[in-house]
Design brief:
Elements lengths: L2 H5 L2 E7 L3 H9 L1 H7 L6 E7 L6 E7 L5 E12 L3 E8 L4 H4 L2 E10 L2 E9 L4 H22 L8 E4 L5 H13 L4 E3 L6 H6 L7 E4 L2 E4 L1 H11 L11 H31 L8 H22 L12 H14 L4 H6 L2 H11 L2 H7 L2 H7 L5 H6 L1
Parallel strand pairs: 8-9
Antiparallel strand pairs: 1-7, 2-3, 3-4, 4-5, 5-6, 6-7, 8-10, 10-11
Helix pairs in contact: 2-3, 6-8, 6-11, 6-14, 9-10, 9-11, 10-13
Organism: Dyella japonica DSM 16301
Pfam family, one: AHSA1
Protein name: glutathione transferase
C-alpha cells in the first residue's frame, strides 16, 4: 500500500457491551440498522439489505429539515460473527459521491463484550476522511445506545458536581429530552475536570469519544443531537435570540451575584463566619437580577414563549438555591412573577430529577445546609 493511500483511510475502534453476534446482526438486520445507523440529530429513513456476498444494501439518513442523504453498496464478505466488508457510495454528484469506498468491520470478543474495529478506505483527501471520522463517531455512539444494557447512559457521561447550578441545568435538559446518562461527580480543577476542560471547570460531557465543555455549548449539543422537546424556541429568530439573551443575563449577572458573591460566602466562609461585607454588597445586585427577571416573565411562566428553554433551565437551580438562603425568601417576596415561574418549573419532573442528588452530594462533601450555616 502506498503512503498516500494510507493517509486517506480511517480506522476506528470501539468497545460495545454486547455479544459479538448481536453487534454483527446490528450491521445486517434492517430493523436494527433503522434504529442506529445515522449520526445524532438525524433519523434513518429507508433501509434495505440483502446480506449475502454480492447482495446490495441501501440506507438513507434524514435531517430535521427533511434533507435526505443516501448511501448504498455491495457486500464483499460476510463471516458471521467476526467480519463484514462492504462498499460504500453516497448519492448525488461530485467527487465523493462518484467515489466508492470500502468498509471492513472486524469484531472480537473482549471483556464480556465486543471490540469493534472499522477500517474505511478510499477517501480522496484528508478533509473528507476527517468528516467521515466525525460522522462515524456519532453513528457508533448510536450503536452503543442501541446495544448497551444501559442505553445512552453507556455513552453519555455528565462530568461535574450535582451541587453546581450548571450541572443541574444540564441534568434538567437531559431529563426533558428523555436521555439516560451517567453522572460522574467531579470537583472543579480536579484531575478528572482537567482532563476534559482546559481550564478545569465544570460541567463537561462525554458522548462516547466526543468531549464537550461550557454549559451553553453542551445545551446546544443536547438540543440538536437528541430527540425530544426543543431547548431553544422554534418560533423564529427573535425568540431564539431572546432565549440566548436571558441565558447570558443569568450566566453573567445572576450566577455572579447569587452564587459567587452570596451563596458561597455561606457555604465556604473564609473565616469562622460568612463575610457580611461581601454578602451585603451582593444583595442589591441580586435584587436587580430578580427585578429584571420579574419584568421578563411578565404574565408568562417561562422567559420566552410557552415552554421552557435553556434560560429557564439555568434560572431554576439559581432561584431554588437562592430561596434556601437566609435572605432569599425576603428578596423573592417582592417578585410575584418570579415566584410563580419558580413554582411552575419546580413542578416539572426534570427539576426533581436534577435536585435528587444535591443533598446527598452536599453530605458527601460535608457542606452544611445554608440555613443551618447562618444560625450557627
Amino acid at each position: 500500500m502506498s503512503t498516500q493511500a494510507a493517509t486517506f483511510e480511517l480506522e476506528m475502534t470501539r468497545f460495545i457491551r454486547a455479544p459479538r453476534e448481536k453487534v454483527f446482526d446490528a450491521f445486517t438486520d434492517e430493523a436494527a440498522l433503522a434504529a442506529w445507523h445515522c449520526p445524532r440529530g438525524l433519523h434513518v429513513g429507508e433501509v434495505a439489505t440483502d446480506a449475502r456476498v454480492g447482495g446490495r444494501y441501501r440506507v438513507t439518513m434524514v435531517k430535521r429539515d427533511g434533507t435526505v442523504h443516501g448511501s448504498s453498496g455491495t457486500y464483499q464478505a460476510i463471516e458471521r460473527p467476526s467480519f463484514l466488508a462492504y462498499t460504500w457510495a453516497w448519492d448525488g454528484e461530485g467527487d465523493i459521491a462518484a467515489r466508492t469506498t470500502l468498509i471492513e468491520v472486524t469484531l472480537t470478543e473482549k471483556d464480556g463484550g465486543t471490540q469493534l474495529h472499522m477500517r474505511h478506505t478510499g477517501f480522496p483527501d484528508a478533509a473528507i476522511r476527517d468528516d467521515h471520522n466525525q460522522g462515524w463517531t456519532s453513528v457508533f455512539n448510536r450503536l452503543v445506545d442501541y446495544l448497551d444494557p444501559d442505553g445512552p447512559a453507556g455513552c453519555v457521561v455528565l462530568v461535574g458536581s450535582p451541587i453546581s447550578p450548571y450541572v443541574r441545568a444540564l441534568r434538567m435538559a437531559l431529563a426533558e429530552k428523555g436521555v439516560a446518562y451517567t453522572l460522574r461527580s467531579v470537583a472543579p480543577h480536579s484531575p478528572e475536570a482537567d482532563a476534559i476542560h482546559p481550564f478545569g471547570r465544570i460541567p463537561a460531557m462525554y458522548d462516547g469519544p466526543l468531549q464537550f465543555y461550557e454549559t451553553r455549548a453542551i445545551l446546544r449539543y443536547i438540543d440538536e443531537a437528541f430527540d425530544g422537546p426543543d431547548l431553544l424556541p422554534t418560533s423564529g429568530v427573535t425568540s431564539r435570540a431572546r432565549a440566548e439573551q436571558w441565558y447570558s443575563v443569568l450566566d453573567d449577572y445572576g450566577y455572579d451575584a447569587i452564587v459567587t458573591r452570596y451563596i458561597l460566602q455561606y457555604m465556604f466562609p473564609k473565616g469562622s463566619e460568612p463575610d457580611r461585607a461581601i454578602i451585603d454588597a451582593a444583595l442589591p445586585d441580586i435584587d436587580r437580577v430578580l427585578a429584571t427577571l420579574d419584568a421578563g416573565y411578565g404574565k408568562r411562566d417561562f422567559l420566552v414563549g410557552n415552554a421552557p428553554c435553556i434560560a429557564d433551565y439555568l434560572a431554576a437551580p439559581l432561584l431554588y438555591s437562592l430561596a434556601q438562603t437566609p435572605e432569599g425568601p425576603g428578596l423573592l417576596a417582592k417578585y410575584h412573577n418570579v415566584q410563580r415561574a419558580m413554582q411552575v418549573i419546580q413542578a416539572r419532573p426534570s427539576f426533581a430529577a436534577a435536585e435528587a442528588a444535591v443533598e446527598s452530594d452536599r453530605a458527601a462533601a460535608n457542606v452544611t445546609p445554608l440555613r443551618k450555616a447562618s444560625a450557627a
